[in-house]
């Protein structure tokens, strides 16, 4: 017995070590398994307790470090998550889960260039990962690198035709660069591929493209489909209201503005839009009431503009001019203020002052077709 003990000592071997290690490994595995189950169940605190118990036993455990990062990310503590993922990568360079989590954290922190660098490291291990490729393309879109973003989205579509994330991304990319017809092409591909199951945000995005193209009648069906899916969706209600305004149907637009106000009565932007609709219908009492309600919430240049326009239409042109001149001093680049002020001067026969108001706007170096049209009209009178 003593000889055996001596032999064990000579080789640095304790007969009790192996079973102890096995027991500890089993405990760690069980804690890890339960920790990730807690994460799935959104029991973040319980998950963190499990992972910290693992760290006490094994400070470099990759499952626990990634788990702590994932838990912090679920709590929205992205900077804490970054620390955990980075620590994991010190001990386990190239750990895919740590790289993926770290890149997502940088994205959430709006540090897109850092996110791109991490995802590109990830691609060294897995260069056909569509999820990572679309994330890189999204990040390039956020930093407005049109060429790289589009190239990666198209690469994804070569790998998987009609990949929804690539199609959505391409739509947003072209929309961001005001290429509305190209944006429509990609979003409509999604509608063709997914039919009635298409995401409501795709429908409202298509509607918004038609709004930007001033093809308001074309946008209406898409906003209506969106509203059928979600009857109180703000973007669908807003889109329909604006489209009906665009085709000269103020009463219909008012119905939708008021539906938004039923849920959000202190939305000053919508109050001014509703005021505009009443003004279009020559209901100046209700229009003034909505503009005043907006101004009671907070100053709004368009509410003041609306009240000034009503003053002009009611023959109180001097009051309107006084109000508009103050607005122009504070918001000189707003072409609508210059247009209305010029219209007021024309209403009292001050043609020279109207021209000067429009020239003042042109001196800012901003080209506007409505300003040019009114100038041409004045000069040909």
Can you give a write-up of this model?
The protein has 381 residues and is an all-alpha fold. It has helices at residues 2-10, 17-40, 44-57, 62-74, 78-91, 96-108, 112-125, 130-142, 146-159, 164-176, 180-194, 200-212, 216-229, 234-246, 250-263, 268-280, 284-297, 301-313, 317-330, 335-347, 351-362, 369-379. Among the domains are: 26-127, Alpha Horseshoe (Serine Threonine Protein Phosphatase 5, Tetratricopeptide repeat); 301-381, Tetratricopeptide repeat domain (Serine Threonine Protein Phosphatase 5, Tetratricopeptide repeat), CATH 1.25.40.10. The chain is elongated and about 100 Å long. Mean pLDDT is 92; it is low at 1-17.
In short:
The protein is mostly helical. It is built from 22 helices and no strands.
Question: What's the order of the H and E elements?
Answer: HHHHHHHHHHHHHHHHHHHHHH
Classified in CATH, the superfamily of the domain at 26-127 is: Tetratricopeptide repeat domain
Top-tier CATH class of the domain at 26-127:
Mainly Alpha
What amount of the residues lies in strands? under 5%
CATH topology of the domain at 26-127: Serine Threonine Protein Phosphatase 5, Tetratricopeptide repeat
